[in-house]
Specification:
Number of strands: 4
Order of helices and strands: HHHEHHEHHEHEHHHHH
Strand content: 5-15%
Structural class: alpha+beta
Bound molecules: flavin mononucleotide
Length: 284
């Protein structure tokens, strides 16, 4: 990279982060890895894709990169399921009718927390398995989330767009049957992957003042910080429609906090814990 293009990329990262967090975060043009940082800083989820397939070799490369991520105690409790069969994809979409992008994406993957192998390894090696409690599920879940994030980073680096899908957990029993998931294997998230049809937009996040903490968690005026974020976000990326207006009416000012409060005023996935327990994980 030439010095001038390094200046340009550093400025582009600063712009993306200013839009995201509402403050200037200085980027030294002499820093290494600017091209990678630029993609990370400008991340956006994609839900519209070009009608162009993804070569299976590319998908395999991205899976290999994703599964190169760190793994708790090297336990490797994360799998990636690639849904190639369109009949299975259609059956998944049928459970989530308001997200057509799942069907439209050239590739659809499911990231799995796999707690099956570890007890099997203990049995194979004639050892007891006294660690059958919440931590095992937690470790598998965290590994899977890291693999998901690493896959998204790798796919983005290759010019692809992604959209994670937690809605595959809306009907976990159906999903588990469709994907023939065995005991102790549960879906964490789906992922739409494809060549972006649009540039997309940066979504502003809570300010770093709220989410980056030094030394000790501190008392602060969270309500004021959230109000400020609502205002910053509304000025840059106002919501196109108000959620559940039939229940809550049309709010004169509608921000992130109103949207999230409305979203979580409706019960969702209350059966997920029972599903995870039913799959053989012990959560105590
Ligand atoms: C674990 C996870 C699950 C998600 N589930 C869905 C989903 O079911 N449907 C969807 O359209 N977007 C989903 N998203 C995408 C988020 O809505 C998106 O990340 C968020 O609105 C911020 O936008 P951005 O990713 O463009 O910055 C999910 C994201 C994550 C990390």
């Amino acid at each position: 990279m030439t010095l001038m293009s390094k200046d340009t990329v550093a400025a582009s990262i600063e712009r993306a982060l200013a839009e995201r967090f509402g403050e200037r975060i200085a980027v030294d043009p002499a820093l290494g890895g600017l091209a990678a940082l630029e993609k990370i800083a400008a991340y956006r989820s994609h839900r519209q894709f070009l009608p162009r397939s993804i070569e299976p070799e590319l998908l395999r490369l991205l899976c290999a990169c994703a599964l190169s991520a760190p793994s708790k105690s090297d336990l490797q409790q994360s799998d990636i399921l690639i849904v190639n069969d369109m009949a299975i994809r259609k059956a998944i979409v049928a459970t989530i009718p308001d997200m057509p992008w799942i069907n439209d994406a050239p590739a659809f993957l499911v990231f799995l927390a796999n707690g099956e192998r570890l007890p099997l390894v203990c049995t194979l090696r004639g050892k007891p398995f006294p660690n059958d409690h919440l931590d095992q599920f937690f470790n598998a879940l965290v590994d899977s989330a890291i693999v998901l994030a690493t896959f998204i980073g790798a796919a983005t680096a290759a010019g692809l767009g992604c959209c994670p899908i937690s809605a595959i957990r809306d009907h976990p029993v159906t999903m588990s049957a469709l994907l023939r998931l065995p005991e102790r294997v549960v879906p964490v998230a789906g992922l739409c992957v494809g060549w972006p049809a649009q540039k997309g937009e940066i979504t502003p996040r809570l300010s770093l003042q709220t989410t980056v903490i030094s030394d000790r968690y501190r008392e602060r005026d969270l309500a004021a910080e959230i109000d400020a974020y609502d205002q910053r976000r509304a000025s840059l990326r106002p919501y196109r429609r108000q959620r559940s207006a039939d229940r809550w009416g049309e709010a004169p000012s509608y921000g992130w906090s109103e949207d999230k409060a409305r979203q979580y005023a409706d019960p969702a996935r209350a059966d997920f814990g029972a599903f995870v327990r039913g799959k053989g994980f012990r959560l105590d």
